[in-house]
From TrEMBL:
Transmembrane regions: none
Listed name of the protein: Gnk2-homologous domain-containing protein
InterPro entries: Cell2Cell_Antifungal, GNK2, GNK2_sf
CDD domains tied to this protein: Gnk2-like
GO biological process: defense response to bacterium; defense response to fungus; killing of cells of another organism
Keyword presence, Chloroplast: no
PANTHER family: ANTIFUNGAL PROTEIN GINKBILOBIN-2-LIKE, GNK2-HOMOLOGOUS DOMAIN-CONTAINING PROTEIN
Residues of the Gnk2-homologous domain: 31-135
Length: 135
């Protein structure tokens, strides 16, 4: 997939809104799942959480690599169906390798945890944790 390619993130819901985001060439060297914890509950059909989670994963991958600690925690969404998340990379990672790892994981996490309502997945170089509640 080249830098100009786009992927389609389909948000479940009444309107079936679609958001186009720029995809990045991802070359995460350590994209092996070291650990995973997946909430057995799936995201409810039609929930605003789908859209909030999509934006959350993008924010985590875009911001964590450029913090001094390679760590970022945030919340997306208001009172209804907010998504809470954090992302981190190992201290030895460069910002570009951190971003590559987090972008790869932010795409893979949907399938690793099968659209779970909460997930914590660790690759060798990075990890993402999201929930439907504050943690």
């Amino acid at each position: 997939m080249d830098r100009n390619a786009c992927f389609l993130l389909v948000l479940a819901g009444v309107t079936h809104a679609c958001i186009f985001m720029t995809s990045y060439t991802v070359q995460a060297n350590n994209a092996v799942v070291l650990s995973k914890t997946c909430d057995p509950r799936g995201i409810p059909q039609g929930s605003q959480f789908w859209g909030h989670l999509g934006f959350l994963l993008e924010e985590l991958a875009a911001n964590a690599p450029y913090t001094p600690q390679l760590y970022f925690k945030t919340r997306i969404g208001g009172e209804y169906a907010p998504a809470f998340g954090e992302a981190h990379c190992q201290a030895y990672c460069s910002p570009s390798s951190c971003e590559a790892c987090l972008r790869q994981l932010s795409m893979d996490i949907w399938g690793i945890c099968y659209n779970a309502l909460g997930a914590h997945v660790e690759y060798g170089d990075c990890g993402i944790h999201y929930e439907c509640f504050y943690f």
